[in-house]
Amino acid sequence: MAVRKDDSFIASRKSKDLVPQAAMLDAWARGAWDNGIQIDLLENMQKVTVRTTNTLYEITIIGGQEGEVLVRGGRFFAELTPANLAGATLGGSFCKMRGIYVGFRMEFTARGKRIITSPVESIAVSHPEEEREIRGDRW
């Protein structure tokens, strides 16, 4: 195997095609996974904003352990839609369950269809403390 200078792509011996290193199983196993979030570690009703190459998504966590979310954004989610977030994928058979990671695509299931987004460019998580501050504490 030949590795590019920046160590982000690997070329196989038989092919000159470059493959993202993250698509290799051993890279997944030893990866730090510090460029994203796991929704199963977030609180229910916590909000996440995800910018992909093509779309801005608003996601509300309903049941993070199960991947249950409400999502809005793009042509598949024009209005707030119940969905299941399988996780982060590069479009192949690997899926980082319940994860959203920069450079990866999000894989949702909604209304009986599988939807895979364009690659994630940025992720913002709203913390409950920030929401209290915006709304005030007098409710």
Summarize the structure in words.
The chain has helices spanning 25-30, 128-135; strands at 2-3, 9-11, 18-20, 36-38, 47-52, 56-63, 68-73, 77-89, 95-97, 99-101, 105-110, 113-116, 120-126. With 139 residues, it is mostly beta strands. The longest helix has 8 residues, at 128-135. The radius of gyration is 17 Å and the shape is globular. The chain is 10% helix and 48% strand. A hairpin with a 3-residue loop joins strand 7 and strand 8 (77-89). It has two helices and 13 strands, in the order βββαββββββββββα. It has two domains: 1-31, no CATH class; 36-133, no CATH class.
Could you say how many structural domains there are in total? 2
* Relative strand content: over 45%
Q: Can you count the beta strands?
A: 13
Gyration radius, in Å: 17 Å
Helix content: 10-25%
Shape summary: globular
Oligomer: single chain
| C-alpha end-to-end distance | 61 Å
